[in-house]
């Protein structure tokens, strides 16, 4: 990717973070910001010469903050901090997560609030551009004093120690730096703390999750429209005047999508007259915009919190406006942790209502004329029976993942850090939840596509019909004898994640335009 993201001139945007983390956009450093970095470093060096101790400059850390460190031992102090804190364990996390947290730490370092040397920010930027991704492991962060262990693994790699991935291949950090003509960092006073004291991991995962969710919520509207249409539901309940009676922003957006998808449907028109004796549809059909809309509003709130965090310079101690190095608690991850947990609740509920719509399509008593389980030869074929089982199993898992992590503080560091956010854990489970939602929606799309085919000669609307055609073009067979279903679910899940379903069904929306940019490799 040729796009370059400028760091230091202004707060990064969510799109900037996604471009670098997911699409390999290069980074450039603002010249004026580099001057601020150099000026703040000069202040730290003056404090280093002061016989009066300054936390993180001439003292130990955490519970050892009162221990004075002699000048000749301070390089060892910084290196020891990184080595000891790089204590992650478990499977490596995804490269995009590591790149996001590294970029976000770079942004804070470029703020001139942390006291690092220019060579530190230049090394972090060069590692990103060279595709050197430090190996960060799943467990280790409590989300307070920031994401210490994950950020320490990044700093360790910049020191030429530990492991990294380059093009997916794990190798020693020293070898990767040498191959990119980069010199390992030798950390000076304050720099170790500055590299690890931030909410960058949880914030990076929040921004990536919001990028995913923008497309998944469009996809949820499309899947719902396919279910409503194929189950002979009505679109009258989504009318704009009815939505205006409850002025919820997300609900109005979702209802507008449903109206657009169903307005030109011959299938909906076929039973829209007085001969349709049903008074109202089941909640999973009728209340789709209320549930999907509430999830949209939750995402909007999370995006607001993320935008504030993107404008933050999180470090402890930090160089304040008065030029003093001051301790603070801005590294506490509570604001980010709360919205990560909130999003997990919304994701679980959107998946839950989707699975209910799928189940209705398969139940002959509720599907209004569709064959049991959409099977070809009832009794011999099982149709999509077990696809619904898979969706139900995922929804059950998502309910467990919706249990908040942010209420589960546990004390650490000899009770100095006696209340922590668990924001990293909240972010990790949200990523798993989003994967589950994509799969549940894929099952509904597969079910809806088969149900639409089974309504022939009635035809679906243009948007839902385009999604049905996309599914068929991807190799997912229509009605017929039973076949191996698992590959179908994997295929459509990939279409959902890539934004292809959203783009086919609702090509004019903001989220689907972003999905198109992602699949094209643009930021």
From TrEMBL:
Pathway: Amino-acid degradation; L-histidine degradation into L-glutamate; N-formimidoyl-L-glutamate from L-histidine: step 1/3. Pfam families: Lyase_aromatic (PF00221). Its EC number is 4.3.1.3. It is found in: Cytoplasm. Keywords: Histidine metabolism, Lyase. GO terms for molecular function: histidine ammonia-lyase activity. Gene3D superfamilies: Fumarase/aspartase (Central domain) (1.20.200.10), Fumarase/aspartase (N-terminal domain) (1.10.275.10). The keyword Lyase applies. Its main location: cytoplasm. It catalyses: L-histidine = trans-urocanate + NH4(+). The keyword Lyase applies. Belongs to the PAL/histidase family. This is Histidine ammonia-lyase. It comes from Microbacterium fluvii.
